[in-house]
Design brief:
single chain, 268 residues, alpha/beta, seven-stranded parallel sheet, 9 strands
């Protein structure tokens, strides 16, 4: 099986309008056997999206059409590609009940899902961790240091793993080092080995998977996968399944970094 387990769609308001068929054809061209469309699930109704354009996730009004369209494509291309209906669900600290209610409603309609942390709760509200270097600087100012931002992020990822979100909780944890997206501008001196080890142990104990995400490779202030090779190698040595994801928001990036990410694991 050759799978890209993290692909977005035109339903993403901060992505491109490339049709899902273009993503599918790109996957077929590259010899993928399986893909999962994992559009950003609608945010809880009472949660105020902190990004200026309020475009972090799919609208609630689009979810039914999204599921219907992927189901139709799943049937249309079933002889050429295994298409899985999925979502990327945000874990938002303080909104566990709302997330659980959403998953209980939508869970029976999807095949696959990712649980990711993009938003961190601070004293002055929530921040979108990966939105921009300026927002990251604001977080450093609020939390007191770059290290404090990293520690808060890793604590929140740990909470997402341990949280009780009901029977339809996603069992693949998304881009566990997303906090490093702007590391070239905001370098840190420590590797946060304990925090990452705690996350890997929690994933293993829960029998979860990790999103092995190539998107960081193309981000000019990151230039490494989420997680990086050393963490991916450790996860693999622990028996934690790694599911490659391009995190493509445009069709031409489906499969991006596949060869590089696989080569990073060859010495295991």
């Amino acid at each position: 099986m050759k799978k890209d387990g993290h692909i977005h769609t035109p339903y993403c308001p901060h992505g491109t309008k490339d049709h899902m068929k273009h993503y599918i054809n790109r996957a077929i061209e590259q010899g993928f056997t399986d893909i999962t469309f994992t559009e950003h699930a609608p945010l809880p109704i009472d949660f105020i999206d902190p990004v200026p354009a309020k475009d972090s996730a799919m609208k609630n009004s689009d979810i039914a059409n999204y599921l219907d369209e992927v189901e139709q494509l799943k049937q249309q291309y079933k002889k050429e590609l295994n298409i899985h209906i999925g979502l990327e669900v945000d874990y938002i600290e303080g909104y566990e009940d709302e997330i659980t209610a959403f998953l209980n409603k939508i869970g029976p309609s999807i095949d696959d899902a990712i649980l990711s942390v993009h938003f961190l709760k601070g004293e002055n509200g929530y921040h979108c961790l990966d939105y921009s270097p300026d927002v990251f600087q604001d977080m450093i100012n609020e939390y007191g240091s770059i290290d404090a931002v990293y520690q808060h992020y890793f604590r929140t990822v740990q909470k997402s793993i341990l949280s009780d979100l009901g029977q339809y909780k996603p069992t693949r944890i998304g881009h566990i080092t997303l906090v490093k997206k702007f590391q070239k501008k905001f370098p840190v001196e420590q590797e946060f080995e304990k925090e990452l080890s705690d996350i890997l142990n929690a994933v293993k104990d829960k029998h979860y998977e990790l999103d092995y995400n190539a998107a960081g490779l193309i981000k000019p202030l990151c230039l490494e996968s989420y997680p990086p090779a050393s963490v991916a190698q450790k996860a693999m040595s622990m028996g934690i399944p790694l599911v490659y994801g391009s995190d493509a928001h445009q069709a031409k990036l489906v499969g991006y970094g596949w060869s590089k990410l696989n080569s990073q694991l060859q010495n295991i």
